[in-house]
Design a protein that fits this description.
Elements: H1 12-21, H2 28-38, H3 51-59, E1 68-74, E2 81-86, E3 92-100, E4 103-108, E5 111-113, E6 128-131, H4 134-148, E7 154-157, H5 167-178, E8 190-194, H6 198-207, E9 212-216, H7 222-228, H8 231-234, H9 237-251, E10 255-261, H10 269-279, E11 284-290, H11 304-316, E12 321-323, H12 337-342
The structure holds S-adenosyl-L-homocysteine (SAH).
Length: 343
Amino acid sequence: MNNDKNLLSLSLDELETLVTVLGDRKFRSKQIFGWLAKGIDSIDGMTNVPVKLRESLKDSGYYIGLPKVAAEQLSGIDGTRKCLYEFRDGARVEAVFMKYSYGNSICISSQVGCLMGCTFCASTMDGKSRDLTRGEMLGEVLKMRTLTDEDINHVVIMGMGEPFDNYDEISGFLRLINDSAGVGLSLRNITVSTCGIIPGIKRFTDDFPQVNLAVSLHAPNGEKRQLTMPVARKYGYDELMKACREYTEKTHRRITFEYALIKGVNDSEVDASELAGRLKGWLTHVNLIPLNEVKGRDYKTAEGSSVAAFKKVLEKNGVAVTVRRTLGSDIDAACGQLRATRG
Ligand code: SAH
């Protein structure tokens, strides 16, 4: 059990134990769980919970760990909202709300910073300060729902941090948000994105076959991948492909490969053909992301013509591919940028 005393980290079972220990009846746990899922920010706001139990919760050190909004940007174009959240200890992470034709989506962070060291990414520049807990991740979603006053239909764990470097809290979060006594979000509406930690992919395939998996590939082979992604030195390309194939075979779900196109690094037609050769005839989807240029990094975004040519090669080979739509282009849309500009 998580002992940071954030009520949002507790499962219904854990809440049941807690209210019993505090001398009340089991059914109170369902009331509390329901309030939390509504995004309530104070224990005293739980009006149908007896004052005595509310006082005991507070006296035992429990609180509702929703983040504060330290900075916020709202796109005037498409309703994209980017928040810099701050938790009680001052830790800051980003989350982004986006409106798509198929529903509203939130991209949340899983760690404060990141240890993975991808050379094009802003989130990893200062390393990792700590992991986020399951309750803090739930708090990112609940807070955004309150701020936007809109439903959240999809959650993508694609913000700051590497989810499989924080596996236990990620799995706790998935179970919490899926619980029908609370938010009740379908696991099919959740996507987890990894830089390719193979043991994490294997565990995830067994534990959460209904959850979508995205893998940040960014290169057509191991040598190129090692140039920008240190994790590729630890986990080989072929072995990664094998683990991804096992995910699609076991779950029958399409796997997404993210591919940030960097000018002169990985955006040639030769790169595209090599990638197509690997993915041909397999249940995949390639999401091409023209690189978001990050201050302090030398990489440039690929030209529009190379993006189009790259896409065409994949299509010719029957590989499903889309270019990521740029939402919130009038705000600091790239990963880690809001945090970087606010210090
Ligand atoms: N650690 C996880 C999730 C966080 S990053 C992962 O690696 O998948 C989310 C996605 O944004 C990843 O595909 C990541 O490689 C990509 N990304 C990071 N910096 C970027 C940038 N400057 N431009 C475009 N995509 C970037």
